[in-house]
Design brief:
Strand content: under 5%
Shape: globular
Number of strands: 0
Length: about 140
């Protein structure tokens, strides 16, 4: 059985299907409106590459925790959903800072190694591979 898994992992067709599945799952949580976020999408509120990377990491590790963690972060920031939606980089980073703390302890089974995982993504931000500017995350989902 282990051989079959290894063989599948090196098959480009299997990798392509896995990547497409991951993209579609992320689209469901990032671009769908939810009452948990005041009827907004995550993209409406927080749209930097840095945030999208953190959200994808959270969704892969604890999918059911993403929206509640973000909603709690917005609440803890003192901003309303409308203020965040119309705000700038500083507002977004304020919410992300709260979010990163919340995801470390949220739920009955908190996100695995949340602090270390966030540090890996932060390194990409620090070297300029991703941006923390609001609106920097661009999706090509309309092309699919």
């Amino acid at each position: 059985m282990a051989y079959r898994v290894v063989a599948a992992e090196i098959d480009q067709r299997v990798c392509d299907v896995q990547n497409l599945n991951a993209i579609n799952r992320f689209n469901l949580v990032y671009f769908n409106r939810t009452d948990k976020l005041g009827g907004n999408t995550l993209n409406d509120l927080i749209s930097s590459e840095y945030a999208a990377a953190m959200f994808l990491d959270n969704h892969v590790n604890r999918p059911g925790y993403l929206w509640p963690c973000v909603a709690k972060a917005v609440s803890n920031s003192g901003l309303s959903f409308d203020q965040l939606k119309n705000g700038g980089d500083m507002d977004e980073m304020k919410v992300i800072d709260h979010y990163l703390n919340i995801r470390q302890t949220y739920g009955a089974s908190p996100m695995t190694h949340a602090k270390n995982r966030a540090a890996v993504t932060k390194r990409y931000l620090d070297v300029g591979k991703i941006s923390s500017s609001k609106g920097s995350f661009k999706s090509n989902r309309e092309l699919r």
